[in-house]
Amino acid sequence: MSGSWKAAFVCVAVCLAVAFPAGATDTAMRLKIGDKAPDFRLRDVVTGKTVSLSDFSGKKVVMLEFWATWCDICKREMPSLVKLQGEWRPKGFEILSVVLPPEKGVKEIAREKRLNYAVLLDADLTVATKLYGLAGPIPLKVVIDHKGVIRYSHVGDYPPGENELPFVLEDLVKEMGKGK
Amino acid sequence: MASRPAVSVSILLLAAAAVGIFLPAGGGAASGSAGSSSYTGSEKCASCHQIQYKGWVKTFHSTVIQDVRKNPSAVMADMSDPDLPFIHFAIGGHWDQRYLTKLDDDYYILPRLWSVQSKKWRPYSTYGWQKRPYSKYCIGCHSVGFDPKTKSFAEHSVGCESCHGPGEKHSAHPGKENIVNPKRLPEDRSEEICASCHVRGKDLSGEYFFPIGYSPGGVLSKYLVPLEKNEGENDNVAIHRIWDKWKADREAQARSRCEVCGIHQTAKPQGAQISVDAICMSCHEYGDKLSAHTHHKADTQIGCGDCHRQKNPDVNENKENNVHSYSYFLIHPQGCWDKEVQNRCGACHKDKTASWAYDIVLKWKKPVIVDH
Q1: pTM summary value
Q2: Is A22 in contact with B330 (Cβ distance < 8 A)?
Q3: pLDDT digits (tens, 9 = 90+) for B97-106
Q4: Which of B118, B173, B139 is nearest to B32 (CA)?
Q5: A136 touches chain B (CB under 8 A)
Q6: Is the CB of residue A97 less than 8 Å from the CB of residue A162?
Q7: Which of A2, A4, A11, A12 to mutate to test the interface with B (most CBs of B within 10 A)?
Q8: What is the spatial distance between Cα A29 and Cα A135, in angstroms, rounded to a whole number?
Q9: Chain A nearest CA to B182, separation (Å)
Q10: Residues A92-146 pLDDT 10s
Q11: Chain A: closest CA distance from residue B102 (Å)
């Protein structure tokens, strides 16, 4: 590579870093990448226990998965989320799914899909709309690092081979291990 | 609907080229140099097989990737954003178009794609895009004869030899014995040609996301481990299950007019309108319940657009959060129905009034609660 093209490459790399900060535009909520994730308490429809986001602070990388019983895409991707939870939970990861109303049918879906993660009912949409400012499509994924900062979000499911959550989790779990 | 933007992208690109913002072609993953001397290229095939060639040229296979320096008009996106980096290649253009830029010695898909439908940029692989080099994730299915050792290939498209295998010998001495004809293969071998790219998987090394070493007519499961295997399923069964579903989905949704790969049927030309129903059904899996939803018999051929109207081509930009838009669906503060649906009944029921229609849809417990 000639010197001028090396310079061009460096320029490209810098431009790209500036133009495309990771995840900055991939959000369908009021909160942005880098914002502190608001804490909440919701009831797990399956276990009946109350779960707080802050329970995981400092201990886990958390992914919120906003879904609803009427969302076909949400239901279709559940097996891959179950697999993700199974693979990454031992490394310090936890999925908290936040289900929007109606409650009817949630338990049945959780049982049928063998969900191995929390199914938290946001009965009055307080968490979804007021706290997180969800104003777009679901499913919406919001990945929060162990310090409680939103680091990644994604609307929709992933086509086969295009799931980038492993990249995200690899980085964030590593950060947590290093105590960054 | 899927028409190209009126923005003079070509002029923008030419201007960009003029000020030297493109990196040079050649070398690396998308060099275009011959990956194998046993390939001859689609242009050469055309010298004898003109009808087939002309059919193929109209398909998206021929333009699955395009060098925007050679063909600036291939770019469908609004490139006026000054923050956009250099782009070298455009990928696709059917539903979305994605763009390759070069970092070091490989290419990467930009973390935003151009939505052909909404004519807007959308985020794409925002976090991991720099971890997906084109030479490992994509090129095997966007080129003919990719050689991982040299990172070279024979032709940059899904060309004739993608399905017929290397054609140099056939070109020199035309005959049935020295070229693969998918029609003469056993059905499973024939379909595996398509499945080699339309079933997502990894090669046996796990390094590449396409079947390194596979050639048309071969047994695909010897080269590809599918990503979505069911428990206890072997590779071959999984490949055919996934392929069958892919094919059935496309046919059911009328998203392609292909007989497997399409070139012998009337090809859907680029820019042709994608049916509204096809877009809806890509998310709404009504199956045999569609008639119950529409309250019309199937033979009326009533379509989604007969009742649901599109108010805004991009629901994300729609402040009214209206459901009748081609996109994902929102949480709808106002509820999920079209309050004016009865006004559209008269398009067919010309002898009826809007109040008659309103009463009818009320009996259906509508207007119109969609299935979400």
Answers
A1: 0.71
A2: no
A3: 999 999 999 9
A4: B139
A5: yes
A6: no
A7: A12
A8: 5
A9: 26
A10: 999 999 999 889 899 999 999 999 999 999 998 889 988 998 876 788 999 999 9
A11: 8
